[in-house]
Each structure stands twice: as C-alpha cells, then as structure tokens.
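ok so I'm stuck.
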Amino acid sequence: MSMVDSADSTLIESTLNGDEWAFSELVRRYQAAVWGTVYRILGNSSENEDAVQEVFLRAFTALHKFDRKYPFGPWLLRITTNYCIDQLRRRKGRRLQLWSELNEYDQQRLLRDFSQDGSPEIVGMEGTEGYARVAQALLDGLNPKYRVAFVLREVEERNYHEVARILGTSEVAARVRVSRARVELQKKFRAYLSGLKRKERKRP
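replied:
not stuck anymore, here's the structure
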C-alpha cells in the first residue's frame, strides 16, 4: 500500500488520544501481515506468537514518532523485520527453519533460480529429507540482514521500493542486500550440487 490510508490515520490519532479500541483495530487490520512476515523470516517457531505481540508493543510505544504523511503498513513491517533480525542474531548457532516452511512450489522455484541454468539435478530433490539438506546448504549462516532482504524480495515477492521502505534503506541498498544474499546462496547451491556429483561418482 503506497498511499496513506485515511482509516489508519484516524485510528492512529485516536490511539494517541488514549482510545485503546483504536489500537486494537490497527492490530486486527495488520496482524496477518505481521504474522506472515514473522513466519517467513523466523520459520515455524514456538516464539512466533510472542514475536507478533512484541512487534505490536514496540509499534504502540513508538507510535508518537510515526510520521503520518507516510503509510502505516511499511513502518510497521520495518519494526517487524528489525525485531526478526535481532532474533536471528540471538539464535546464531541454532538451525534456521525458513526453507522447510516454504511450500514445494516455492522451494522448486527458488532452487531453479539459484541454479541459474536450471540444473537437471534439482529434479531428483524429492521429499522432505532432500529439501532439509538443501535448506542447510543454502540458508544456514546467511547474514540476517541479507536473509531478511532476500525473504521480502524473493519469498514475499515485494518490489524493491517496498523492500527499501520496510528495511528503512534506500532502494540501492535494498538491491545490494538482495544481490549479496543471492550470490551467497548461489555459491552455497553450487557447492551443494558439487557434493551431490562427488557422491554419485563414488557409488559403485
């Protein structure tokens, strides 16, 4: 949503004037969007519900700083992505679950994209176990900042203008982050395919 929503503006003004119902209505309007972003970045985690509540708490606390010349949605999603980046940094050694939470169509689409030349090896990657191995090869250890930019652009399929607004960066910076994520992921994917080929050659 690029234009300012007049209903959002009214609800924000009412919230700042002490109307608790008005903020509950903002939560109702944006809960699905926040939940979806949390889910795609953090994966299927028991922490997600707490994360969504924390995002709205932060938004409520910072609402007096929000510039109502701009739409509320991207501002709220920026708070969401910043919170998720913090959580990813805290997890460090823990395995990230994003990949296994994507549906099979998105997994295949992104794998073909990573392979650049549509490598035929992808066709054999059937079943949960295969995808889990690819997940580890592709996503573990990716810088959280690049990972979030990649999710917004390649998984949620947002345009760069939206990605930049949500991340609080310029479009150029957003493109750089997505590009670096793609380069890193393609490198990991090629290494993964090389490992597959080596195993194939060793088989009797």
